[in-house]
């Protein structure tokens, strides 16, 4: 029982985690587990000690709330940042893919154009030297003059 440690020391009282030390009357009492915070009729928060003797209960609650708030904010910021980066990287990948497809299509069209130009040039040379066959009679006889 925590009341056995009353009028002794705070350190001895707080060795048991279910005890609360009150500096106003140097008493060790059972922590009121039914309520989250001990009522002020039992002991004021600035004079109550729980867990450690060097920090009062009020400061302990504030410190825990600040740390929990910082963790919550940092997790929220990380989640938002990660979602934004994923969305941004997906759109960037889509843009790169579209750009590659456009370049591929441009190269294909240029290749077809060059192929057509080569065919026209070769046909002109064949025509010049009489090697171009008539499309009406592709099997005409080749005659030497």
UniProtKB/TrEMBL annotation:
Keywords: Coiled coil, Membrane, Transmembrane, Transmembrane helix. InterPro entries: PTTG1IP. It comes from the Eukaryota. The keyword Transmembrane helix applies. One of its GO terms (biological process) is protein import into nucleus. Residues 86-122 form a coiled coil. The chain crosses the membrane at residues 59-84. One of its GO terms (cellular component) is cytoplasm. This is PTTG protein.
């Amino acid at each position: 029982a925590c009341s056995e440690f009353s009028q002794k020391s705070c350190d001895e009282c707080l060795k048991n985690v279910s005890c609360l030390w009150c500096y106003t009357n140097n008493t060790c009492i059972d922590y009121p587990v039914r309520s989250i915070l001990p009522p002020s009729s039992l002991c004021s928060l600035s004079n109550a000690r729980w867990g450690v003797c060097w920090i009062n209960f009020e400061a302990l609650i504030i410190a825990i709330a600040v740390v929990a708030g910082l963790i919550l904010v940092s997790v929220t910021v990380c989640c938002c940042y990660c979602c934004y980066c994923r969305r941004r990287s997906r759109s960037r990948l889509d843009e790169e893919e579209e750009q590659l497809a456009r370049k591929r299509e441009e190269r294909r069209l240029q290749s077809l154009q060059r192929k057509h130009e080569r065919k026209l040039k070769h046909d002109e040379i064949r025509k010049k030297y009489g090697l171009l066959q008539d499309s009406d009679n592709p099997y005409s006889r080749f005659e030497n003059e």
